Amino acid sequence: MVLPRDTILRVELMNNLSTDVSQKGDRFQMRVVESGPYQGATLDGHVEQVKRPGKAKGTAELQLAFDKITMPGGRSSKLIAQVIEVVKTGDSQGIGKVDSEGGVSGTDSTKNDVKKIGIGMGIGAVVGAIFGGGSGAAIGAGIGAGVGTAGVLTQRGKDIYLNQGQHLRIRTNADAEIQ
Q1: Distance CA 5, CA 99 (A)
Q2: For residue range 94-137, what is the model confidence (pLDDT) as tens digits?
Q3: Helices then strands (H, E): number in the chain?
Q4: Which helix (DSSP H) or strand (DSSP E) does residue 171 occupy?
C-alpha cells in the first residue's frame, strides 16, 4: 500500500502541545479521522521547533515533524508531511496561521497592546482633568500611556495551545510505502 505524495489527511491530536510547555524533541501522536483507506492510522512525530512569544513583539511558533505512519493492522512506513491547517474550534487558543513550511504561528498581540496603552492613556487623562483641568488631562494622559506601555512590555504575547482532540490537516511531502 502506498500513501502518495500530496495526500491531504485530517488528523486528530492525541496529546497536548503548547509553546509554553513543549520542547524541541517532544514526541506526539495523531490519528487519521477521515473515512478512507488510512482511517484509524496513527502518526508519530516530534516537535521540531518551539518559539515562545516575546514581550511587545514576536509571535509564538510551533513546528511539528512527522516520522512514521502505522496502519491499524500494524503495517508502517516512514512519513514526511507538514501541517497545512489547524482546524479552528472553540478550544483553539493563540493559533494564527500556518506558514508555507508547516509551522503554526501564534496570533499577533499588537492590536490588544495598543488597546491597553489607549485605555491607560484615557484613564490618566480623566484623572488628570479632574485634578488639574486641561493641563492635568494632558499630563495624566502621558502618565497613563506610560503605565499602559510598561504593562505591555512586561507581558508576553499569546502562547499556542494545541489540545488533545484538536483537528489538523496535513499534506504528505513524499510517497510512503506502507509495509
Answers
A1: 19
A2: 677 787 777 787 765 444 444 444 444 445 444 445 555 566 55
A3: 1, 13
A4: strand 167-172
SS3 label, residue 49: strand
For position 59, what pLDDT does the model report? 84
Beta-carbon-side half-sphere exposure of residue 6 (alpha carbons within 13 Å): 0
The pTM assigned to this predicted structure is 0.69
Specify the pLDDT at position 166. 93
Lowest mean pLDDT among 15-29, 54-68, 163-177: 54-68
Cα gap 33→36, rounded to integer Å: 9
SS3 annotation, 127-158: HHHHHHHHHHHHHHHHHHHHHHHHHHHCCECC
The mean pLDDT value for 146-150 works out to 47
Q: Are 99 and 107 in contact (CB under 8 A)?
A: no
Side-chain-facing half-sphere of 23: CA atoms under 13 Å: 0
- Going from the C-alpha of 81 to that of each of 36, 61, 92, 171, 179, the distances in angstroms are 18, 18, 22, 5, 18
